Each structure stands twice: as C-alpha cells, then as structure tokens.
Description:
Elements: H1 3-17, H2 31-36, E1 53-57, E2 61-62, E3 66-68, E4 75-76, H3 78-89, E5 93-96, H4 105-111, E6 117-118, H5 126-129, E7 133-134, E8 139-148, H6 155-158, E9 164-168, H7 172-180, E10 185-189, H8 192-200, E11 206-210, H9 211-220, E12 225-237, E13 240-241, H10 246-261, H11 264-273
Parallel strand pairs: 1-5, 1-6, 9-10, 9-11
Antiparallel strand pairs: 2-3, 3-4, 6-13, 7-13, 8-11, 8-12
The chain binds glutamine (GLN).
Glutamine (GLN) binds at residues 59, 62, 102, 120-123, 168, 171-172, 210, 235.
Amino acid sequence: MTNIDRRTFVKGLGALAGAAVLAGCGGNSNKGDDKAQSADSKDDSYTLVTPGKLTVVAELGFAPLEYMDDKTGEPLGFDVDFAKALGKKLGLETTYLPNQKYDTLIPTIQQGGKADVAIAGITINDERKESVDFTDPYLDSNQAIVAKKGSGETDQSLNDPSKSVVCQSGTTGDEWIDEHLSKATKKPLDEVTACLTGVQTGTFNAFVIDLPIAQYMLKNSFPDLEVIKEIPTGEQYGVAVSKDNPKLTEALNKAIKELQDDGTMDKIETDWFGAAL
Ligand code: GLN
C-alpha cells in the first residue's frame, strides 16, 4: 500500500472505531505469570516490565528517528516523540533503556523482561515476525546507496569483490547487500556514523541504509557524500512487541490509529521531516 492509501485506509478504520477509549491498564510485570495464563484467558490486560511505564529499547544512532542529545544525553527524534505520544495515549510514562546495538533489539524483545517495545525504525518483515509481533505500520521507508560525491560508483560497479560496501549490522540494508550486491565485500558495523565516516575517508566504497536517515545525515553532517541510488524496497516501520503480550500490540494499534486520526502523526512528521508524509 502506498502511504496515502494506507493513511486513507487507517483513517477509515479510525472513523469506524469512533471515539473508542483505550483500556490502557498495565497489568503485572511478571513474565512468568503472563506465560502461566492460558492463551484463551479472558484477562484482557497487557503486561509491562515496569508498571505505569512504557519501557522502550532502541539503537540511538539513527537520526532523525532516534539519537542522543549531545548535551543532556536524552533520546530525541521522530520515533522518540512517537513513543512518548503512544505512552500518553495508554496513560503510561515513556522511558528508554540505555542505547543498544541494533541487532540486539529484536532478541531483547523476544527474550522479554527488559523492555516492552523496540521502536527504532524497525522494518516489519516475515523473518522478524517469527521472533516478535509488530504493530500496524507507522511510517514508510526505502533504502539508499550512499557514496562519496563524484565517486562514479553505481550499483553495478559496486557488485565486485574489490568494492567494500558497509551497512549497519542486522538491518534490511545488510540483507539487501546479500541479495543485490552479493559479489561486493560486505562490512557490517554497529554504528551509522562509523559507516558514513568510513565512506567519507575512503575506507569503504558505499553504504546501504534507510533513505530518510541517509537524506537527513548527509544534509546535516556529511555534505561530501551523496545518495547514488534510491532503492524502492517499500519497507514499513512497526513497533516490535513480545509475542507473549498480544494485548499490548492491540492497545498500541488502537493508539496508532488515534494518533493518525487526531493529527499527532502529521505533527510529528512535520516536526522531523519538514512535512506530513
Ligand atoms: N529499517 C532498517 C531495519 O529494520 C534499519 C533500522 C535501523 O538501523 N535502526 O533493519
């Protein structure tokens, strides 16, 4: 679905739901108890790691979605405002765990007990759905290949063992390289800034990363780099939730619809991307 189609669709659903009030009652925080409840339990509450709080885990090096404020050390960004708005809808205080590597986020949610949700520009895909549940999509995305301005690189020239192509480990960009630049030498790293700096200094020939992040980072911090190809992967970001906590996914889906309906998503998009998307 295109973004516009999806929004129309979601807004339609929102209208049908009317002014449904969220039953955001945080249940107990004990995973064991949660598991002990049978699947057909009539208890419609969700569990929380810390009662009264929506505990979020993220990789905080992905501006403008999530990054750390240099001065305060607080997380900032589109996803952070979105996470706070979700918390507010559920009557919960949104709180972040310390920064974690991207490829640990889904395992953290799957294992349970540390965070209620991972919100980090995480693309919904079938492989990940085997480990965690996802909410409905909240933002569309694509991939981009980034290289040094004037490098003359193309996706064809990069598909060669003499070319090193960097990515953030465990991302959909990482997978895209496996599938489409299989002859290139892939270099997975933990941090986006290390990837960008490596391309800037010539250590790597190119970087495959989500397009909105590439555009933001290049404009603000890496003017000597350019997007040499936009890749229309049609990805959509979702909130990752434990499979043991389906009622939380349900409550978050209601909250997302409300945020789309009441203009909050448009406002957050305008704040971080300059326009409602
Ligand atoms: N959207 C990409 C993915 O899901 C990248 C996310 C990220 O690096 N934070 O893999």
